[in-house]
Amino acid sequence: MRMIDLITAQVKKSTTKRRPGEIMSNQSKAGKMHRKSENDNTFLFLTDINSILVSGEDTNGEFCVVHCSVKENDGPPLHIHGNEDESFYVLDGELEMTLGDETFFVQSGEYVFAPRGIPHTFKVRSKKARFLVTAYPAGFDSFVKELGTPYVEGMEAQLEPPTPEFFQKLIQVSNKYNITYPGL
C-alpha cells in the first residue's frame, strides 16, 4: 500500500467517528448569518445592554453569541453555570474578572474561557466595556430573553435598585437554566 493511501485511511478513520457508532457530520451547526445589535435582539439584562447576535435557535442549540455593553462598576454576582462553558472577548474597556480562585484584569483584545462548573464574575473597571460572550451549548441567550426586558434607547438611565421580588425572579429563572449563586 502506498504511503499516501495509509495516511488517507488513517485520517479518514480518525475523523469520521466521534463515539462508537456515531458518525461525525461535516455539516455546519448554523447557516450563513450577518447580524448586528437591533431593537428586536437587544435586552436590558440586569444592568447590561445585551444583544443576542447568534441564538441557540440559529445553531440547533450548539452555541450562542451575545454582545454585552456594561457600565463602570457593574457586573453580575458570583455565579456558576452548570450547563454551559462561556468565553469572553473584550472589544473595548477593561474587566476585573474572577474565575475560580483567580482574579485578573482583562483588556480590549483579550480572551477568557470560563468552563462550566467554575464560579466566576466580573466588574467593569473602565467607564464602559463592550465584549462578546459565547456560550457552549446555547442557553444563555434564552436566559437573557427570559430575564431581560426588550431594550428601548435610554431605559438604562432609569434603573432603580433591585427589589426583593426581582431577586426572587432571578433565582427562579436561574434555577431553570442551572445557574447558581454561591453566597446568595
Summarize this entry quickly.
This protein has 184 residues and is an alpha+beta fold. The protein is 18% helix and 37% strand. The strands form four sheets. Strands 10-7-12-5-4-3-13 form a seven-stranded antiparallel β-sheet, with helices on one face. A three-stranded antiparallel β-sheet has the order 9-8-11, with no helix packed on it. The chain has a two-stranded antiparallel sheet with strand order 1-2.
List keywords for this structure.
single chain, 184 residues, alpha+beta, seven-stranded antiparallel sheet
Return the structural class.
alpha+beta
Please count the beta strands (DSSP E, at least 2 residues each): 14
Strand/helix succession: HEEEEEEEEEEEEHEHE
- Gyration radius over CA: 20 Å
Mean pLDDT metric: 87
Strand content: 35-45%
How far apart are the termini?
65 Å
Helix fraction bin: 10-25%
Low-pLDDT stretches are 13-17
Strand order in the sheet with the most strands: 10-7-12-5-4-3-13
Number of helices: 3
Largest sheet: 7 strands, antiparallel
Shape: globular
Lay out the secondary structure:
Layout: H1 3-15, E1 17-19, E2 22-23, E3 42-45, E4 48-54, E5 64-71, E6 80-81, E7 85-92, E8 94-99, E9 102-107, E10 111-114, E11 120-124, E12 128-136, H2 140-147, E13 149-150, H3 164-176, E14 179-180
Antiparallel strand pairs: 1-2, 3-4, 3-13, 4-5, 5-12, 6-14, 7-10, 7-12, 8-9, 8-11
